[in-house]
């Protein structure tokens, strides 16, 4: 135990601020894959409501299992308060000033081997009062007053009592499709529960900043309608607020973000415009306020509201990078002071539930380094480094990021993130065009990314286009991607690649395209549409046929909802009947004979998002006319790789594949 305490103390406190962010490009050996793909050494840090304690997950030095450790900033002591021999501490939530709620996972098995639920436990900050509240499987009933395994940690409550919220999804069909979600109050000392009334088909609950349930979204699978219900004052009754079409973003729809205790509802909506903005909702007029509270120039609003004790202190948001808009002058001054001490990083302040507390947690990062955690003492005005997610990563061995906007062939502005290897510009690099999944998501975010930086550390430039259909850049950019799989979405990727060549960043004879999920689909269609542009392709867990998404396969189950297949896919991807010719022309499976470049394929046998049949069918078709096919199957994995050993194996294979087909990366000295 003394050895454990010593190692945790080193992980928490053994950092130096002065050298942490130096961007020196020192020569040295290439960092091993383990540095990128092993689990983080310090993660999940969260302050107690008063800011006295910091709870965090750190791995055991022998078995690697995540433990729950608590740092007491008053006594300057670190204590392990929970650990297991066969499970890892996972999510952490403070119940009150002295008690912690947590669940578990088994991070040493893949998705296909997971047999237990996460369970739920509570423990005091000093390690006393441990109680299991939720079982991990149907056979686990060893303790009194434990809820069944299918109850999960709910939204954060008031953090001023021993009560928390838990959720349980209810399914009424054999496929496990969600029907509705129940929410209960749970006493973490006694295990006693209290029910909460819900509207029919409730799916998600929003609490106000006093911890009271105020808003519920409801939806029935097979329907395209989403409804919102509110509960006002001390009433336990829910009333219908509004309904809208889930597949028409400009139909007056909005997404609830936060509910203040004074009754103010904050929502995001594009309100028939292009960019999503932050609004308040006018309950009397039953509509959004006329003017937005926050609107970004080039991005949809995405962020978190810092509501504390009934006051909106500020808003975390994301544009090209993260930032904070402070309404409270005291916290704005605090942000300015911390930014002066850490001038070359994004510094996010994590404010405890109670205002005026002595400590603030700061998460700090640039593009070349994973997150470092600091505690800022407001009385001494000093920053104390408390943890580093990946201390073995050296900034000088990482690539630098830049975001530019390029013109596609039809004039549309397409955001592109370019990461150049250590050593900066001035070279024609071998390049990997990395296509994000989704596809209707934002793909890139400023900050250290393990996959991108693994490639950059090997001397490859990485290009990540936010092709039309990507979210975060306005409704017009999103809408321009509807029904454009393999068409204009694909053209944007090719146009971004040609831009990188024209700018002198990429060697035109040494470019590989890669991606997962939709990115895997786009990889294969890139080899179909633009064979002269890409010398090879890397597809992992990629869609290979849109009709197969619709129809499925009797041997493989999927998690596609009926609403998505009935309404979303026909309008956003393509209609099986009306667009039959297009779906065939843009199917990698149907067009496999046209792919002549080397291809690396990797799939998880337990993938329910893109079942294994996508990979098997495409592989069998491709090898008929292409002898340069490498196949990897991870039997215990799902939609992506969970286990470090599989991530390390996959990316080591990727490095060898790239070296074989586009040559070794540029030297990074």
Could you describe the 3D structure shown?
The protein is α+β, with helices and mostly antiparallel strands and 669 residues long. The chain has a domain of 263 residues: Rossmann fold (3-Layer(aba) Sandwich). The strands form eight sheets. Strands 28-29-31-30-32-33-34-35 form an eight-stranded mixed sheet, with helices on both faces. Strands 1-2-3-4 form a four-stranded antiparallel sheet, with helices on one face. Strands 5-6-7-8 form a four-stranded antiparallel sheet, with no helix packed on it. The longest helix is centred in the C-terminal third of the chain and has 18 residues. The protein is globular and about 65 Å long. The relative contact order is 0.10.
Give a topology summary.
Elements: H1 2-13, H2 33-37, E1 43-47, E2 53-59, E3 66-72, E4 77-82, E5 88-94, E6 99-105, E7 120-124, E8 131-134, E9 152-153, E10 163-171, E11 178-187, E12 193-195, E13 202-207, E14 213-219, E15 225-230, E16 239-245, E17 255-259, E18 265-269, E19 277-282, E20 287-288, E21 303-308, E22 311-318, E23 322-326, H3 329-341, E24 346-350, E25 359-365, E26 372-377, E27 382-388, E28 400-407, E29 413-420, E30 429-435, H4 450-457, E31 461-465, H5 475-479, H6 488-502, E32 506-516, H7 518-529, E33 536-540, H8 546-551, H9 562-572, H10 580-585, E34 599-604, H11 613-622, E35 629-634, H12 644-661
Parallel strand pairs: 30-31, 30-32, 32-33, 33-34, 34-35
Antiparallel strand pairs: 1-2, 2-3, 3-4, 5-6, 6-7, 7-8, 9-10, 10-11, 11-12, 13-14, 14-15, 15-16, 17-18, 18-19, 19-20, 21-22, 22-23, 24-25, 25-26, 26-27, 28-29, 29-31
